[in-house]
């Protein structure tokens, strides 16, 4: 998947950079509304009890540049329709089962769009830690 700074329309995954390693993800359910796993006050809050799937305005989604997904041809063939992706996301509105390692914002959007409970950020982190561990031992 490529990321761009334009092309915001419903059904697209959006993200903002949190730090050098991580992004926060959401799904556009309208051209200016995002459904996300976060808090309305602060998407970066990590106190799991306050993190729920909610809807916010795109302008309130994050601080900094918001990037929008540009699906590859193969991704377009594998993804759900926009209508189905949004329906799956809205059906989880209010869910409070956030876990940064096993059920985070990237897992959420990938489930809604691609039917895959996956987070490349967590996979990359685990691989990096494994490589460091293997190198030390």
List the main descriptive attributes of the protein structure presented here.
137 residues; six-stranded antiparallel beta sheet
Give an account of the 3D structure:
This protein is of the alpha+beta class and 137 residues long. It is built from 5 helices and 6 strands. Strands 1-6-2-3-4-5 form a 6-stranded antiparallel β-sheet. Strand 2 (13-17) and strand 3 (23-30) form a beta hairpin. Helix 3 packs across helix 4.
Short summary:
This protein is an alpha+beta fold and 137 residues long. The protein is 34% helix and 24% strand.
Separation, N- and C-terminal Cα atoms: 35 Å
**DSSP strand count:** 6
The main sheet orders its strands as 1-6-2-3-4-5
Spans of at least 5 consecutive residues whose pLDDT stays below 50 are none
Biggest pleated sheet: 6 strands, antiparallel
Radius of gyration: 15 Å
Q: What is the topological layout?
A:
Layout lengths: L1 E3 L8 E5 L5 E8 L2 E6 L13 E6 H4 L4 E5 L2 H6 L3 H10 L13 H10 L5 H17 L1
Antiparallel strand pairs: 1-6, 2-3, 2-6, 3-4, 4-5
Helix pairs in contact: 3-4
